[in-house]
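Annex B.
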Amino acid sequence: PVPSLQVIRPEPCCVCGSRIRFGKTAIKCCQCQLLLHTKCREQCPSLCAPRPHHHTWPREGVLADFVPSTPPLVPALVVQCVTEVETRGLTETGLYRVPGAEQLVREWKRKLLRAGGALPALSSVTDIHVVCGVLKDFLRGLEEPLGEGTASPLTLLPGAATDIPDDTARDTALRHVVSKLPPANRDTLAFLMLHLLRVSHSPDCKMDVLNLSRVFGPTLVGHSSANPTPLAIMEDTPRQSKVVAHLLSLPPDFWRGFVETEQENLVPM
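RGAP1 protein: predicted structure tokens.
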């Protein structure tokens, strides 16, 4: 059964991957819960095909939905994208700034999410910017930003830490806030910070900390309110970049402390 419904919260179509916008009509299977554009119905004739036996990730969710059962709690998708970028992308100019082909980014993100933990190899993706796009799109698609957490969201950093003029006091406050994040958010943030530091140190990439913080600020750090106005979003952008720049200023050993305890587990499947 595929009843029609009106979308209230924008969600991705399970067939084409693009978002079904607010107020648009969509169809949803009563049994398997797949949601798709009405125009995509013919491309998905059997909505209730048997589900794969292996674990399949949700199309969207909180970070904890994607992490393994043993630490460090970093999703295999994130590990695989980062590994691929570091294997063959550190000589590419504009990593994470130059966009990959949007259709390929959507296709590969959908393929990886459907695969669950048993991920297909990314070596067949010719353009490394597509791999970068998949990672950014995955982080953007989470129900809450990576730097969010009920214990102490990075959203609180502007008042709590980033405006402290003394570098030592600011770093201490930052370390405290990061340590209070939920374990999955904390470990994944640490893994990403170490990766972005390696990107910033590559002269070929031409992506210093300032550039990377501008790219990842809105992705990693939440807004100052639950339902920000367009003006608030515009005002939040420099603040978000500032937070990420300060995080990247922390010593690598701080971040390694979260992910190197079980580093051998960080092997892409």
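Confidence is low (pLDDT under 50) at residues 49-54, 149-153. The chain has two domains: 4-43, 63-260. Further annotation is deferred to the next reporting cycle.
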